[in-house]
Write a structure and sequence with these properties.
This protein is α/β, with parallel strands linked by helices and 501 residues long. Helix content is 48%, strand content 18%. It has 14 helices and 17 strands. It has helices at residues 10-22, 33-43, 59-73, 89-97, 110-121, 139-151, 162-171, 190-197, 217-225, 238-298, 305-336, 351-367, 390-406, 466-476; strands at 2-6, 26-30, 47-50, 80-84, 102-105, 131-135, 155-159, 178-182, 208-212, 230-233, 348-350, 372-377, 385-387, 413-421, 425-432, 480-486, 490-498. A 5-stranded parallel beta sheet has the order 2-1-3-4-5, sandwiched between helices. It has a 5-stranded parallel beta sheet with strand order 7-6-8-9-10, with helices on both faces. Strands 12-14-15-17-16 form a 5-stranded mixed beta sheet, with helices on one face.
């Protein structure tokens, strides 16, 4: 790079010339402002370093003359870095107004000084891939902000007023990551521009930073009311601008990363659910064939007692495996229906009639263990009606009754009660006289794979998925479920649903 170093100290001119020359740059020096301005046109440097305090013409005057020359010639801005021992906030503010890229204090070692100057030349790109729009009617302010952002790796677009900016925002609605806008501008102000931008779906939450000379708190508050994310008061130091920008864009990057990860996880979860549903369904067919053959073999009168026992074991194991496959299939269906647009349509269901029909079949299973099953209704008038897919109500009741049957010993009792629940709901209470649940396991009952499952009173197997499926189905239909249990005396599940008029 070609660098023009301007300083009235021969020592610092030598430091800059030697250090930057060793780094591979072409360096020319000037001892004062007039000399530097005379060299500028001939050299056309990539960077100018200026001391602040110099005789005849201070660094600020030199910078102002450079900017005036660029305006007269319609030339691009030359990067300017102040290298000074007079590094104050006031001087930084004045330098920024004149378009300075950076301020570096002389009170550092030679290596650090040269490194900081080279940083101003080299592109540092921690925010590469992000896109910003800078809106300001001041060419100097706009170009200084743009150069700061580009040094961070951003792709930067520019506009002189709100009208130009809105056209750019519309075109880049889905790939714009940051907007920095002045407030007072011709044709369309920054606040009007902000209000219009916030109506674009893709820019509703994009960080929008106002830069203004408004010190009044009421005026600044109005900027936030129109949709601004942040505010900086002009003039401000480069470090202040970048500190604000980095925070907003790092959050933006994190949000985008999280969105991508959520999309990937959702896709993987759907693949898992689809695989679960397909494999569970496909496993049923050969298993039903095995159970069918076992049933035929078991009905053969010539079969020996020993072989009948073996066939019974095949049937028992097959039925347990079929029940487990059923749980996995129910789980896949429940997860699939949690996705938008896949929920089953609800319809009014006569609760008492549905339970009566279901229990007629269930009682046949209960007679194998000599268990009595009773249905009670506390509604004096007509049976209550709830809105729930009939298949989901069937799966809820089937799981709860199957559990009651599994954990109730021979000769026990199971009761199903339908009763009114205040203010406008219905409760289904399923109680058994079974072995009960240990207190420490009750909080884990509805967690998937929580290892709370155990064999039934006749050795029936369990996957531990049934109650988690029940909880999902009940919650999805605006209901809730509670459980109470005493070891050795039995368990009661209470399910609540709102009544639909």
């Amino acid at each position: 790079m070609k660098i023009l170093a301007v300083d009235d100290s021969s020592f610092f001119r030598n430091v800059l010339s030697t250090g930057l020359g060793e780094a591979g740059h072409t360096v020319r020096t000037a001892m004062d402002g007039p000399t530097a301005l005379a060299m500028l046109e001939e050299m056309q440097p990539d960077l100018v370093t200026l001391d602040v305090d110099m005789p005849d013409m201070c660094g600020f005057e030199v910078c102002e003359r450079i900017r005036q020359r660029e305006r007269d010639l319609h030339a691009p801005l030359t990067p300017v870095v102040f290298v000074t021992g007079n590094d104050t906030l006031k001087n930084r503010e004045r330098g920024f107004e004149l378009g300075a890229l950076d301020f570096i204090t002389k009170n550092v070692g030679k290596d650090e000084l040269i490194s900081k100057i080279q940083d101003a030349l080299l592109i540092r790109a921690p925010l590469t891939g992000l896109k910003a729009l800078v809106v300001d009617d001041s060419d100097v302010a706009r170009h200084v902000i743009m150069r700061c952002l580009r040094a961070e790796g951003l792709t930067v677009m520019e506009a002189r007023n709100g009208v130009e900016a809105y056209k750019i925002a519309e075109k880049h609605e889905n790939d714009l990551d940051l907007i920095i806008t002045d407030v007072v501008m011709p044709e369309m102000s920054g606040t009007e521009f902000c209000q219009k931008v916030r109506k674009l779906k893709g820019l509703r939450y994009v960080p929008l930073v106002f830069v203004s000379g408004l010190p009044e708190k009421d005026s600044i508050l109005e900027l936030f009311r129109t949709g601004g994310t942040d505010h900086l008061i002009k003039p401000f130091a480069k470090e202040e601008l970048l500190a604000h920008v980095r925070v907003h864009l790092e959050v933006r990057q994190l949000n985008r990363t999280m969105e991508r990860q959520i999309e990937e996880l959702t896709h993987l979860n759907k693949l898992k659910t689809d695989l679960l549903a397909v494999t569970s369904h496909d496993l049923r067919s050969p298993l039903n064939g095995i159970l069918g053959v076992a049933d035929v073999m078991g009905s053969d009168p010539t079969l020996s007692a020993e072989n009948k026992e073996y066939v019974g074991l095949i049937t028992q194991s097959g039925e347990q495996l079929l029940a487990q496959i059923g749980d996995l299939l129910d789980l896949a269906k429940a997860e699939a229906q949690q996705e938008p647009g896949t929920a089953l349509p609800t319809a009014p269901v006569n609760l008492l009639g549905t339970l009566d029909t279901f229990l007629a079949t269930f009682r046949k299973q209960a007679t194998k263990k000599s268990i009595r099953v009773e249905l009670a209704n506390s509604f004096a008038d007509s049976a209550p009606t709830i809105a729930i897919p009939a298949s989901e109500l069937s799966r809820i009741v089937n799981n709860l009754l199957s559990n009651a049957l599994k954990f109730t010993p021979q000769g026990g009792d199971i009761s199903v009660t339908v009763r009114h629940a205040k203010p406008s709901g219905v409760e289904i209470v399923i109680a058994d006289t079974g072995i009960g649940i240990p207190p420490e396991k009750i909080p884990l009952l509805f967690n998937r794979y929580s290892k709370t499952s155990r064999p039934g009173t006749d050795g029936e197997a369990s996957t531990g998925l049934g109650l988690s499926i029940v909880k999902d189905l009940i919650t999805r239909n605006d209901g809730r479920i509670e459980v109470t249990s005493v070891e050795g005396k039995g368990t009661t599940f209470t399910v609540f649903f709102p009544i639909r008029n």
